[in-house]
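Tip: read the tokens left to right.
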């Protein structure tokens, strides 16, 4: 397969993988929010000494924020990787190294990212002389 195709596939994979993480973050937030509201209704009857709904809201917001913050660079990098920006190549490499820790799918995506973006032909593809200049 040509390096252009690998870069295109890689950009799409990062957009999809990071979008799934973004949606997961929002779903986690909604899950903790709903659970907190449900427990709050039960807590009115039992009068627990700990404010469980507030704890659930805080944990839900924290987990959701982490997932959203970690997914945004992958989406941005994937979009701009499709447009062959050198800075996007570097951003996606950083995201790929972080993805190595997300076993099993992130690890596979991280390995593929490193393999594609460290390839000599791909590096030449992102050099300023090979990127077509578009006049606006």
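Filled-in amino acids:
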């Amino acid at each position: 397969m040509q390096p252009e195709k690998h870069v295109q596939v890689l950009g799409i994979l990062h957009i999809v993988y990071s979008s799934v993480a973004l949606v997961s973050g929002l779903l986690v937030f909604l899950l903790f929010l709903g659970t907190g509201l449900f427990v709050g209704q039960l807590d009115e009857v039992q009068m627990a000494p700990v404010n469980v709904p507030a704890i659930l809201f805080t944990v839900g917001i924290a987990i959701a924020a982490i997932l959203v913050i970690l997914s945004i660079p992958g989406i941005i990098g994937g979009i701009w990787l499709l447009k062959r920006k050198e800075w996007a190549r570097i951003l996606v490499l950083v995201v790929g190294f972080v993805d190595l820790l997300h076993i099993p799918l992130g690890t596979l995506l991280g390995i593929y990212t490193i393999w594609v973006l460290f390839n000599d032909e791909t590096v030449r593809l992102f050099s300023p002389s090979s990127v077509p200049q578009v006049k606006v």
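The chain has one domain: 3-125. The radius of gyration is 21 Å.
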